[in-house]
Write a structure and sequence with these properties.
The chain is mostly beta strands. Helices cover 14% and strands 35% of the residues. The protein has one domain: SH3 type barrels, CATH 2.30.30. The strands form 2 sheets. It has a 5-stranded antiparallel beta sheet with strand order 4-3-2-1-5. It has a two-stranded antiparallel sheet with strand order 6-7.
Length: 96
């Protein structure tokens, strides 16, 4: 059954807010490696291709370059930046 509530079913478990997700989308540039969470709660990575109406269009790889959308509701992190979503805010990642 489709999720008609407009909320990610795992968002309570993961715990991010839409405002923080919108801030993360501002960090995305073309060719950025973006991590999103799908409707099953699995994290998936893809390359940002272009900005669309609902967020960034991602190339998830595969034989034909499967597309997906990074929106404020499903974005988790952007590679190449020192920030990630934790709780309801964006925090700086610690150096490895």
């Amino acid at each position: 059954m489709a999720n008609l509530s407009g909320k990610n079913p795992k968002s309570k478990e993961i715990g991010w807010s839409l405002e923080a997700g919108e801030d993360m989308l501002r960090l995305v540039t073309p060719r950025s490696l973006v991590t999103i969470v799908d409707r099953f709660g699995t994290e998936r990575k893809g390359r940002a291709v272009m900005r669309g109406n609902y967020g960034w269009v991602l190339n998830m790889g595969g034989r034909y370059g499967t597309p997906d959308i990074a929106s404020p509701r499903n974005i988790v992190r952007v590679a190449g930046t020192r920030f990630k979503l934790v709780g309801h805010s964006i925090v700086k990642r610690e150096a490895a």
